[in-house]
Write a structure and sequence with these properties.
Length: about 475
C-alpha cells in the first residue's frame, strides 16, 4: 500500500459534509441569466475592441458517443453508428459546427492569433477521419492559428483508430487526452467502460511513436467498488505508462441531475475518509514518480507546458480544467460550449445538439445564457483563480492589478479566514500572503475558495458560523 501523509481526520470530517463548487468559472453558471442574440453579439464585439485584443483559445464540442458510461456528467448524445439516422445527424452537426466556426472567425477572430485549440466531448473520435479533417481545415481557414499553438483532443481508447491518430498528428494536434478512469475490471464493468490496460498501453505507444508531444490521462477516484488496493494499482499502472499530464478527478455522484448515475451502486462507494486516503496516496505516488502537483487535482512532468506555466505565472483554470496562458479569450463552439471573454463576460450555447443544429440552420445565434462580470466579480475571479492555480493568494499582486487595498476590500473574508487558519487549512504570512497548507489546505482548497465567493454568501450559506463550508473531496 502506498504511503500517505498524516492528516487531522477530525478536522477533515468537520469540513467534509457539503459539496462546494470547483470554481471552473466565477460566478458559477447557476448565477448566469438568459442572453439573447443582440447582447451576445455586443459582448463579442466588445472583446475585439480591447487594445490589444487578447489572443484566443478555441474549444469545439463534439457531443456524440456510441455507448453510455454510467459515471459521466458531460453533455453527450448516445448514438450508435449503426443507427439509421446516425450518418445524417452527424453530418448535420458537422455542417452546423463549420457554420459557427466561420461566423465566429469573421466576428471575433480577425487579426487575433489562436494560441490553443481543444476538441472535447462526448467522444470527438466518434467522427470519421473525413469529418475530423473537414472541421480542422475549416477552423484553420477561419482563424489565424499561431505557430506553436497547443492543439489538443480528448480520445476514447476503445474507439480511436490508428488511422485517426495519424490524421490528427498530420493536422497538427500535439496533445491527446485519454479517458482512462480506472484499470480495475470490476469497476470498469460496473461503470460500463471496459478498456483493459493493454488497450490503453497500445494507444499510448502509438501516440508516442507518431510524435504527440504530450499525453494526458483522466483518472477518477471515489467510484463504486474502488478500494485502496485497486486505486493503488491504478496509480502504479499509470506511472508505468508515464503520461505527461494526469487529471485525477473526484467522482461526483449527482443522480438527481444526471439520470445515468441512478444505476450506480452508491452503497458500494468508498466513504469520505477512504477517498481522502485515495487522494493523498496519489499525490505522494505521483510526486515521488517525478510529477509536479498542479492546482486541485492535476499533475504534470516538469518539462510539460502545464508545469512550466506554474513556474512562469501564466497558468489558468477554466472549464477545461488547468490550462496554460491565462490571458486568452476562450471561444466555445458547438452544443453546450462556453465562451469566456477575459475579465468581463461568459456566453453558453444551447445544450441539445439537435436544437443547436436548428439554430444554425435558421441563421440564429445558438447562445442561450451567460453573464457580464462586475468589477467585484473580476477581482474575486482573480483571487479564486490564483488560489486554485498557485495554492496561495498574493495580496500585493491583486492590489497592483486592481488598484485596491486587499485588507480593506476583503476585511470580512480575512476575518472568516481566521477560522480556517486555526484549523490548519491556511497560513497567513507576516506580509499578508495566504498559503494553503499541505496536506489539509490543498485537500480542502474549495473550502478556502468559498470564503471569497460572494455568490455563496447570498445562497443561504451562513458564513459567520464556524465550519460553514465543506467539500466532498
Amino acid at each position: 500500500m502506498l504511503s500517505v501523509p498524516i492528516v487531522d481526520r477530525e478536522v477533515f470530517r468537520r469540513y467534509a459534509g457539503r459539496s462546494l463548487p470547483r470554481h471552473v468559472s466565477y460566478p458559477m453558471p447557476t448565477w448566469w441569466r438568459d442572453i439573447g442574440a443582440d447582447e451576445a453579439a455586443a459582448i463579442r464585439a466588445e472583446s475585439t475592441r480591447a487594445i490589444p485584443a487578447p489572443a484566443l483559445s478555441v474549444y469545439l464540442h463534439l457531443p456524440f458517443c456510441e455507448a453510455l458510461c454510467k459515471f459521466c456528467a458531460c453533455n453527450r448524445t448516445i448514438m450508435r453508428k449503426a443507427a439509421k439516422d446516425a450518418d445524417q445527424r452527424t453530418e448535420a452537426y458537422v455542417v452546423a459546427l463549420e457554420d459557427e466556426i466561420q461566423r465566429l472567425g469573421a466576428s471575433v477572430g480577425t487579426g487575433r492569433p489562436v494560441r490553443q485549440i481543444h476538441w472535447g466531448g462526448g467522444t470527438p473520435t466518434y467522427l470519421s477521419c473525413a469529418h475530423i479533417e473537414r472541421i480542422q481545415k475549416t477552423l484553420t481557414a477561419a482563424f489565424s492559428v499561431a505557430e506553436g499553438a497547443e492543439i489538443a483532443i480528448e480520445i476514447d481508447p476503445r474507439v480511436t483508430s490508428n488511422d485517426q491518430l495519424e490524421l490528427l498528428r498530420r493536422l497538427g494536434f500535439d496533445r491527446v487526452s485519454l479517458g482512462v478512469q480506472d484499470f480495475d475490471e470490476r469497476v470498469q464493468k460496473h461503470i460500463h467502460r471496459i478498456q483493459p490496460y493493454e488497450m490503453v498501453k497500445q494507444c499510448v505507444d502509438v501516440c508516442r511513436e507518431i510524435g504527440f508531444a504530450s499525453v494526458n490521462f483522466d483518472l477518477i477516484y471515489g467510484m463504486p467498488y474502488q478500494t485502496l488496493e485497486t486505486v493503488a494499482d491504478m496509480i502504479d499502472r499509470t506511472i508505468a505508462l508515464s503520461p505527461d499530464r494526469i487529471a485525477y478527478y473526484h467522482y461526483a455522484q449527482i443522480p438527481d441531475k444526471i439520470a445515468n448515475q441512478r444505476g450506480i451502486h452508491h452503497d458500494q462507494m468508498p466513504d469520505s475518509d477512504t477517498k481522502l486516503t485515495m487522494f493523498l496516496m496519489a499525490v505522494e505516488a505521483f510526486t515521488a514518480g517525478g510529477y509536479e502537483f498542479v492546482g486541485l487535482d492535476h499533475f504534470a512532468k516538469p518539462d510539460e507546458r502545464l508545469a512550466q506555466a506554474v513556474r512562469d505565472g501564466s497558468i489558468n483554470r477554466n472549464f477545461q480544467g488547468m490550462t496554460t496562458e491565462a490571458e486568452l479569450d476562450l471561444i466555445g463552439m458547438g452544443a453546450s460550449s462556453i465562451s469566456q471573454f477575459t475579465r468581463f463576460a461568459y456566453l453558453q450555447n444551447v445544450r441539445d445538439p439537435d436544437v443547436y443544429v436548428q439554430h444554425m440552420n435558421a441563421d440564429a445565434d445558438p447562445v442561450i445564457r451567460g453573464t457580464r462580470l462586475s468589477r467585484d466579480d473580476c477581482i474575486r475571479q482573480t483571487v479564486i483563480n490564483h488560489l486554485y492555480c498557485y495554492a496561495a493568494i498574493d495580496p500585493d499582486r491583486i492590489e497592483k492589478r486592481f488598484d485596491i487595498n486587499f485588507g480593506a476590500y476583503f476585511s470580512d473574508e480575512l476575518e472568516r479566514l481566521k477560522h480556517l487558519e486555526a484549523d490548519g487549512l491556511v497560513e497567513v504570512k507576516p506580509d499578508g500572503r495566504i498559503e494553503l497548507t499541505w496536506p489539509l489546505g490543498r485537500v480542502l482548497m474549495r473550502n478556502v475558495a468559498a470564503v471569497f465567493d460572494a455568490y455563496l454568501h447570498r445562497d443561504a450559506y451562513r458564513l459567520g458560523e464556524r465550519h460553514a463550508f465543506s467539500t466532498s473531496a
